[in-house]
Fold this protein.
Amino acid sequence: MEEGDLNIPGLLVERHSGVLRLTIDRPEKRNALTDDIVSGLIDELVAAGDDESVRVIVLGGSGEDFCSGFDIVARNAPGETRPRVGSIQRRLPNQANRLISLMLRTQTPIVCEVHGWAAGIGLSLALAADFTIAAADAKFWAPFLGRGFTPDSASTWLLPRRIGEVRSRDMLLLGRVVSGSEAADWSMIHSSVQSEELGLKGAELAATLATAPTVAIGLTKSLLDASSVATLDSQLQAEAFSLELSSRSEDFKEGLAAFREKRDPDYKGR
């Protein structure tokens, strides 16, 4: 396992066999995010987009929880200098908002492993991943209104698209906590497993994606992202363009050769 080049307090970065693993590492704070961790995640996602050796990203958390949200307690601690009025409007576009947008738009597939709490922005991270696997007893929670403020981190955009408006109101307005097994039943996440199987299932999925035709996966992810606002004609044109690009890849040639030779393809991600 190769460690990352960046030394970011609260974030572990590892690379191995095409897999970039990002682990939120503040277990004593239930992996609540800080500005530095968010910046580190953004930097790693941007770098992964330019690194052809990275074929899949895995996001997880150390200890008993995935991510309990942003560390608003530390930011609002007594004695700390209060930011001037309007700081949220200035900060969010470059921090949490940018992180969620990058997760959705990067062509590198993202797997999220959730155990324990996924609350606040932790919920949004799980929703923004391409594949989220959760322990059956994991807890997904949007705690915003219970704390007296409105949702952020694209939760009002992501939840209705994943589970519909009725269930989104249940979570966002009433603060309903949803278990991992229930989230899978709602199609909010990819699947739920027993907690002791989470690491294995996540690794299996990451290995599958790391040996898949990376160019075609990235283009398909972009097509899915665009489909929610596209017209039929524009989507058909986008599909034709993506097909043209993917059919020029080395993996396309390998796929054809494997089909002719009746063997499994050996995709190199190019």
Remarks:
- The beta strands are 2-3, 11-16, 19-24, 56-61, 110-114, 117-119, 131-135, 139-141, 178-179, 191-193.
- Residues 35-50 form the longest helix (16 residues).
